Amino acid sequence: MPRPAPGPTSTPNPNPNPASNPNPNPASNPNPNPASNPNPIQHPIQHPSPEPPTPVATPTSGPARTPSGPAPTPPAPPRKAFAPPWAALGGYAATRLLGLVALAVVAAVVDKDGLHRLKGRWDAVWYARIAEHGYGHEVTLPNGDVHSDLAFFPLFPALERAVSVLLPVDVATAGLLVSWAASLAAAWGIYAVGAHVAGRRAGVVLAVLWGVYPTAFVQSMAYTETLFTALAAWSLLGVLRGRWILAGVLSVCAGLTRPTAAALIAAIGITALVTVVRERRFRAPLVAGVLLAPLGWLAYVVYVGVRQGSATAYFDVQAAWGNSIDGGVALARFIAGLPWPAALGLCAALVLLGGLVVLCVRQRQPLPLLVYTVAVVVVSLVGAAYFGSRPRLMMPAFGLLLPPAVALARLRTRTAAPVLGALALASAVYGAFTLLGSGPP
């Protein structure tokens, strides 16, 4: 019986042109499936293209031979789902700890109670009263305006009450514990969104930048900003990963926390509509998520309406607090009434804000994140609320910080770290003097 002709002594490289396969090692690509990230942006860290694989000798007969050269490195084990991002959480916690230290130092110098500013003044008092006694408290101002506690949504005071029952603390201290725990959950969620969109390094920087936001001192107070941002960030991540029901459930909770949940509801609804048009089919989880998303916000609006006996009662309550929508008229009047240097500075700040929005669009951020960010900014600017509260109202729009986060992530650590440190120190000092002065409106 004739023997077969001997084959070639080596297997040629199936892809002789390395430029056509820039990433032959799937282990170096954390997201090999482009369908799971429909709107990717450029990763902030540029890795060199790997060398093409070396041909390996393949004998045609006889005992197997070991190829020469070192053995290939096995791929790194995948990260566990929801593994804590210690760099992001540690960096964020350091910024908030620095803020608390600055507050304690300045409070000692001016002989004031810094802790009281965190849990016992402004909106924190209203939340603590609701937690203790429920709704029904009103304050009549000298000009006749009536401020009702129905302007405050119920989830945060409900958590305050639950913590005060479980732990030996009063509701005001419970509010601090809820806010601080939610701030870590928010930093984690912000990191997760940033890592999904722009890579892990950018996610870490994004979480730290949120901690050095100019009004980040509110994140250390018994306020709702941290709880709402945590719910919004994880809900957006659910949309980005196609987990529509989870996104809808978290949106329900966000709708029971702040009226700004309207921005999150819009982001989920618009993204779902675009997805249906693109796929030309309805999927049950998507429909369920969209239907769930507005239920929390709607439930509270209906509750206020039934309680007050008027379909527009919730909006009337907000208007009495000066929170009606006027299309930006109040903002324009405020700027016009300022001395020209202050007006010029404020206009420059608004231009900077607009520039960040443009950068978000040019960065091609994923649709749900972009819609949410722009909607939060718009809602914060078109209301008739006091101007000083607007930066605080925009703080949940963490997508605004993604362009500078990506830029900083491209720098070496020894360059980026001092920048972030300087921003953290400036934010801490500003927060200390603000809390001990006029305070957050």
Can you describe this structure?
The structure is a single chain. It is built from 18 helices and 2 strands. By secondary structure, the protein is mainly α. Strands 1-2 form a two-stranded antiparallel ribbon. A hairpin with a 5-residue loop joins strand 1 (138-140) and strand 2 (146-148). The longest helix has 28 residues, at 171-198. Residues 1-81 have low confidence and may be disordered.
SSE ordering: HHHEEHHHHHHHHHHHHHHH
Radius of gyration: 27 Å
Helical stretch tally: 18
Strand content: under 5%
Helix content: 55-70%
Class from secondary-structure proportions: mainly alpha
Number of strands: 2
Q: What is the general shape?
A: globular
- Strand order in the largest sheet: 1-2
Question: What's a concise summary of this model?
Answer:
Helix content is 58%, strand content 1%. The protein has helices spanning 86-110, 114-119, 123-133, 155-166, 171-198, 200-211, 225-240, 244-255, 261-279, 284-292, 295-308, 313-320, 329-336, 340-362, 367-382, 390-394, 402-409, 413-435; strands spanning 138-140, 146-148. Helix 4 packs across helix 5.
Give the key terms.
441 residues, globular, two-stranded antiparallel sheet, single chain, disordered N terminus, mainly alpha
Furnish the topology, listing elements before pairings.
Elements: H1 86-110, H2 114-119, H3 123-133, E1 138-140, E2 146-148, H4 155-166, H5 171-198, H6 200-211, H7 225-240, H8 244-255, H9 261-279, H10 284-292, H11 295-308, H12 313-320, H13 329-336, H14 340-362, H15 367-382, H16 390-394, H17 402-409, H18 413-435
Helix pairs in contact: 1-5, 1-6, 1-18, 3-4, 4-5, 5-6, 5-7, 6-17, 7-8, 7-9, 8-9, 8-10, 8-11, 9-10, 9-15
